[in-house]
User: What shape does this take?
Amino acid sequence: MKLRRSSEIGVILLLGVLGCSRKPAVSKPAAAPPPEASYELRLGKALFRHYCQTCHGETAAGDGFNAYNLDPRPKDLSDPIFQKHKSDADLADAVRRGGAGVGLSPLMPPWGHTLSARQIDELILYLRVLAKQAGPRGPASNASS
Assistant: This one.
C-alpha cells in the first residue's frame, strides 16, 4: 500500500516538474471587448427585433423572413448610401406614418400610434449603427419601404 502511494506521489511530482520546465506559452494580447452599447441603443435594438426584423431582416438588409412574401421587397435600411440621403427626421417620419404616408410601399405599417416619439428615436439610433456595421457598399437596389 505504501509503495503504491509513493508511486502515485512520484508520478504527480514528475508531471509537475515536467509541466513547469517548459517555456510558458506566449499568448497574444487579449482583444479589447466591444464597447458597451448605450441603454438607448439596446432599447432600439429590441424595438427593431420586435417590430421590424420580420420584414427587414436581422441586419436590416431587407431580407427578413417575411420579405419574400412582399412585393415590393422591404428596403435595405443598412445601406450606407440610403442612410446618407435620409435624415433622422425622414426615417422617423417613415416609421411614424408608414410606407404609404411617405410615398413608399403601403405594406410597411405606420407605427406612430404604437411607438412613442422616444421609442422611434431609439429605433433610428439603432438603424444608424447598423449602417456603420454594414460598411461601404454599392448603390441601393431596393426602392420600397
